[in-house]
Amino acid sequence: MTTFMALAPLLTVVFGALVVLLLEAFMKRANREPLGYVAALALLAAGFFVIRSWNRDLDYFGGRLVLDRFSLLLIALFVILGLFVLLMGLKYAARQGMNLGEFCGLVLLAVAGLMIMVSSTDWLVVFLGLEVLSVASYALSGLKKTDRTSSEAAAKYFLMGSFAGAFFVFGLALVFGTSGSLDFSTLLAGGVSGAGLAPAGAVGLGLILAALSFKIAIAPFHMWAPDVYEGAPTPVTVFLTVGPKAAGLAVLFRLLVPLLRNEPFAAVFGSALSLMAVLTMFAGNLAALRQRSVKRMLAYSSIAHSGYLIVAVIAGDGPSLVFYLVVYLFMNAGAFSVLAAMSRKGVEYTALDDFAGLGRRYPWLAACLSVFLLSLAGFPPTAGFLAKFYVFSGAVREGHVALAVAAVLASLISVAYYLKVIVFMYMKEDQGEAAIDQENPALYLVIFLCLFGVVQLGLWPGNLLALIRQALSAAF
Amino acid sequence: MAELFWLIPLIPGASALLLVLFGAKLSRRWVAWQACSAVFLSFLLSSAAFAHLVRLPPGAPGLTKTLFAWISSGPFTSPIAFAFDHLTAVMTLVVTGVGLLIHVYSTAYMAEDRSHARYFAHLNLFTFFMLVLVMASDLVLMFVGWEGVGLCSYLLIGFWFERPAAAKAGMKAFVVNRVGDAAFILGILFLLANVGGSSFSLINKAAGGGLLPSGLMTLVAILLFIGATGKSAQIPLYVWLPDAMEGPTPVSALIHAATMVTAGVYMVCRLSGLYAASGPASTVVAWIGAATALFAAAMALVQNDIKKVLAYSTISQIGYMFLGCGVGAYAAGMFHLVTHAFFKSLLFLAAGSVIHALAGEQDMRRMGGLRKHLPVTFPVFLVGALAISGVPFLSGFFSKDAILTGAFAGGQYALWGAGLLGAVLTAFYMFRLVYMTFYGKERTAMEPGHSIHESPRAMTIPLVILAAFSALAGYVGLPVFFGEKADLFGRYLASSVKSGSPHLAVPTEGLLVLLATASALLGIALAFVFYRRTPALPSRLASRFPGVYRLLVGKYYIDEVYDAVVVRPLVRGAEKVYERFDLKVIDGALNGSAAAAGLAGKGLNFLQSGLVRDYALAFLIGAITFLGFLLL
Fold first, then answer.
1. In whole angstroms, what is the distance from residue B63 CA to residue B77 CA?
2. What ranges do the domains of chain A cover?
3. What's phi and psi for B455, nearest 5 deg?
4. Distance (Å) from the C-alpha of residue A427 to the closest C-alpha of chain B?
């Protein structure tokens, strides 16, 4: 149904961003926390519209923006992500010298970009969303203006992102030149008819894939990721490791899955993507082994998880992909939240040595982090185990046995570095005393919610899976 | 009470949770009581469920309880469901029964430890996961328990993490186990993709009904077995178990002798339908078992650490169990598992009592003559040693004989011979240990004033109970010449596991029993000659065959080989990735920021360090490669 209501979630978020930015001008510097609540309210309103639009297949702009159940599901994921990031940032901003108003406004804008990306069926609209997201993310990663690594991250991300954006546009031009349309469906129709693509079209598609791979942080386009994830303020890192990844994968999934069902495409793209998936899993996990900073280790782990996710895309296994994304949101946000909690004014503790003896000094934080890490490592019965289990069993079911074997081996390596943190927390005497400022209720709420998600989805995943299956059955 | 059987794992689980969260605030007495009574309750429930089970008419299915739906993935679903059939009952009783005794023993053994609550929390947690493993009605839930016991084993081996060796041993156990687990999960994935379900009954039915291609069955069976070699410390993944002796001794008794390490045997028995249907996989199981039995027994001959001898002995005895399973005598394998659980935990706990008496001494060269000082520990240890050696009419005699008879009846004479040779070695190294520890001159290096004393009641009572079981447990599975119906154990398990080979004629079987007895006595006699009558003989022999001796003492250098072939390349690979990508980036960033500091105020000058250019170049090369791949 074509109706203006299809824009409601998007407009709410953008409007919220504008309100926050305006309000900031009228607020005292001392206490700007209400801005966070306003932003959260905007996200909640968007969530309300998402629920309202469920099952109604709204669209607008001549069908270029579609709220089918697949995109609604992902938008809901982004709303939750946005809320987590905002809650994490409330105290963090003041402590680490960030401007809360800018932070909230930019997070909302970035969420808007993500929403556009997942709900569009047209290349140009995807690009629009990508740019909205990117510009906001560049600024977000540089928000700790006094911190050199943060500014460096922003600059690197910006330069590399523009580079990738140029690839995207050039690829778009080639695709448009050969197929005469920017609509996904034209490309798909060409694929389904079995004709395949003209070489120029294939190059175009390849360039677009490269640019998307950059956003998802897939090897060999992942080089920027560890620096940026490490340098960005921790709440922003959560956003960057989940948001762009999910949106990029959703676009890839919408586009690639029908294409990969088609022999000439599958022969070419399937093997290229498999190679990238394997490369990503191993590069991420091997590099993470040697890290001395937990934040950087988690950054590499995030790259490795991109690899597992691509396996789901290659297998065409939508439910597993979305389930993995949801679980990844909870366990990753949880792990980074504990990291964000390890801070006080002006100081953040991220080195492995700072975690020595944490189990004795802050037993609850350590216990939560252990659960998140075990989940990231895929240890049963946490949600991370189920997520990996679904993805790998989907790959085997669809006949990608070698890929599944590689994924299992890669995740075998990953256990070593996740466990290392737990060893440090429980089995090392503390050397320095990392004194943590524990006055941070919003952050602890996020940790609790993530813990709840990880345990709940590990034991009772049925409801969410049913929802995901229902959402995907209609769309694909 | 039997219908409450699903609480069996949950009670220790709940207790573990309480102890993890509040253990530090509870008194030592309370912690010990709570941990022991949780396991005791589980034991009571298990007994009730067992009583219910044996009263059922033959052929009736066991108890099942579905707690809730868990995984549903397309065509297949896997609920969280517990089952209690004849096979489960055996394992559950062993885990809770032996577990209870070891919990009680621990209250005294660990009374002085500063992390008392953490110890009992982990021990309860282990019991929980082990019971989940045992009672799971499908393979995926079993895997949950399988991974969980691995985690607890790691936590308990590294319990005294102040000792670097303990922390390292825990890590090694965990990593080696994960290698096996990776194969295990692949096996599960293949099964799911082809069977469409993961419940044991479904898998056994599909395998028995010939629904699966035989190549696939062999592949799956071998992948699962690789998982079992990790958990049960068999060739090639046995290397972690000797190091695991760094953990507290009751842990070695519970986890690394009686229960967790036998999980692989249990898994093979649980899937006996699958293994019976795949000839090649069964052959692999049998030969790996036999090879491990011999190989580990040979290493036990030269160990001087009392716990290490027992560790290699455990590896060797589990080899026997796999040998039994591999030749189709699943009931015999389970039988040996049960008797082994009794006598091996007895031996470990008694060794713990010795170590306790000597204030932590584990080297047998500094023991000797303890017979007089330990009036309870010595006789019970002797019972255990006689039982494991296979001396007639103790439990180990019957169970080992059942395995060897099974191998002989299946026409596997080479395996039978290997088993017999292993029996000689077993008796030899056990009595070497007995003579070195309890007989001869006192070689203890105790400070004056510290007298050698027998352990407290809480430790000796479990020892006596275990000794009684070690002596008598064999009578539930008598060989066939005591009558067709004498093998109670085998008949009891007939509904749960595949039955073995046909029975032999009574005279043949009698001959086999005589041979087995002779080999046990030969081993004991040799040990007597070597370590009691002419104690100079071992060193003379060692200097006569220096190569063999060094090979055994060096544990065949397997650790070194693994280090060179697997560990170091992996570490080097990680190092390479780290140097190529990460170090350059970090250093570059540092240089970059140094440059920026130098050019203060000039904005983003550090970007000219060339780093971003490097990244862009990498991106470009990647894109070109990708495109080349697409077009060519």
1. 20
2. 4-475
3. -75, 165
4. 6
